[in-house]
Amino acid sequence: MKKRSLACIFLVMSLLQTYPQFAHAQDVESFVRDFYKWYIKESLILSNEPVFDQKILKYVCRCTARRVQFDYNRGVSADDSDYYMRRQDYGKEQLDNLMVGKTIAVNESLNLVPVSMSNQKEYNPYLVVFVEKTNGRLCISKIESSLRPNFRAPVY
Length: 156
What we know:
Layout: H1 2-15, H2 20-45, H3 62-74, H4 92-96, E1 99-100, E2 104-107, E3 110-116, E4 127-134, E5 137-145
């Protein structure tokens, strides 16, 4: 009897959860944090080019990953910098100083996440990560630098 009443109380409490949007935002923020931790470790510690690794598809939308790989193969990149980092030189201090800001929900399927990886331990976001939710799965569809104006054509 006690087990049933405990199970019913647990069920009612889970149904009356008051912050589902907050829980989703935490998921998006941790998703972006996990991506950058994996990406920087692959790039620096393991001396690997994660852009061409199939494991990147765990985090990045397939069309975005293929487009970035195509650009890298042609030798075309913005300012000769890494697409996902938006900078040319980065080191272990970027991994140590990685800070992910609060998620901005544009709609149910698109979130914008500010990311800071400065050389100092201060929050100074310079990246905006576009995270889409498609078929119940999160994926990074675009990364923009917020330091300078975006003169590119709109993404289709």
